[in-house]
Amino acid sequence: MEALKRKIAEDGIVLSDQVLKVDSFLNHQIDPVLMQQIGREFARRFEKDEITKIVTIESSGIAPAVMAGLELGVPVIFARKRKSLTLTDDLLTASVYSFTKKTESQIAISGNHLSKDDRVLIIDDFLANGQAAEGLLSIVKQAGAAVCGIGIVIEKSFQPGRDELVKKGCRVESLARIQSLEDGKVTFVQEVRS
To answer: Cα–Cα distance between 127 and 45 in angstroms, integer?
Structure first.
């Protein structure tokens, strides 16, 4: 997605050869126009998949997921990382390690919101090692629902997340694929269009 790549190139800050900071438009301050474009692009890529629910993880996945949900006309469910007084019954849970925060979290979704009849699109802001996506996959499978695909805003293709998900049979659609963050520079994967 060219608009996203431009935004990353202009406003993204390379903190190391492993970490890209995009808090000015994605995961702290949110650019709503860009989020709307992201939602439309996910909807376009998954429009034939008869999606019934979108699942994401709090908090940075919520904005792109809601915009995609708006475009597809389906509800969005986000997995909580923190315990909630109201989220107690029929929980679907998974353990997720955060590469950025270097912490492990127990994520949870109420089983009341997912069923075996659902066709789910998983959306997240970043794909690095694939831990968040794998946790969400586990939760969706616990519900008996079908995963139609995984939509990623920014993929760090130099890390193993995509390969791990593809090995599990997942369709992964990333809007911006980063080949490298070496020398303080963002280099995108050159994708061949058919």
So the answer is: 18
